[in-house]
Design goal:
- By secondary structure, the chain is α/β, with parallel strands linked by helices.
- It is built from seven helices and seven strands; from the N terminus they run βαβααβαβαβαββα.
- The protein has a five-stranded parallel sheet, sandwiched between helices. Strands 6-7 form a two-stranded antiparallel sheet.
- The longest helix is centred in the last third of the chain and has 14 residues.
- It is globular, with a radius of gyration of 16 Å.
- The chain starts with a strand and ends with a helix.
Length: 175
């Protein structure tokens, strides 16, 4: 099984990319590819930009990555209660090529933030919207208070109870 994972933020220190990377590593006997959104940055989408550029090659590249996966691990950054503008822009360009961006792939949908809600607002938005774009959200997971609950040096969740919760989700998904 091939897992494609990404944190939906272009930050070089993305806490969501760290969470997605750690989570993907928990799946046994899988090939894992972790995407960096910086590899897919495009001009801000508009119909005028699309008219001038056409279908952007980086959007097709992102869609190709989705197509290569058997399972998706996505951790969403929450910017002012919604998707990061970088992810939304990639998503917008992709939908102009193919509405079903996630191409029928099952997904573990996650979010984290430095705050106590752990990206709950963006997680709810995506859980409601993403099935219309070609995925079945198999499970969701929110990691609150990232700095207190994740050891960035060791690259894993440091809170034993929360770590067990995530590991149980991954075990269930691998059944």
């Amino acid at each position: 099984m091939k897992i494609v994972a990404f944190g939906a933020s272009p930050s070089k220190k993305s806490i969501n990319k760290k969470l997605a990377t750690y989570t993907a590593s928990l799946f046994e006997n899988c090939e894992v590819e972790v995407l960096d959104l910086n590899d897919f940055l495009m001009p801000i989408f508009s119909v005028d930009a699309e008219e001038g550029i056409g279908q952007h090659a980086l959007a097709q590249s992102f869609l190709d990555k989705m197509a290569s996966a058997d399972f998706l691990v996505v951790s969403l950054a929450e910017n002012n209660g919604n998707f990061s503008s970088a992810f939304k822009n990639i998503f917008d360009w992709c939908t102009r090529i193919q509405k079903e961006v996630f191409q029928g792939k099952p997904m573990l949908l996650m979010a984290t933030s430095p705050g106590g809600r752990g990206g709950a607002t963006v997680l709810a938005i995506a859980e409601a919207a993403f099935p219309r774009f070609g995925t079945e959200v198999k499970a969701t997971f929110s990691l609150p208070n990232f700095d207190a609950n994740f050891d960035t040096e060791k690259g894993h969740i440091s809170n034993p109870q929360i770590d067990l919760e995530l590991k149980a989700i991954v075990r269930e998904l691998q059944r």
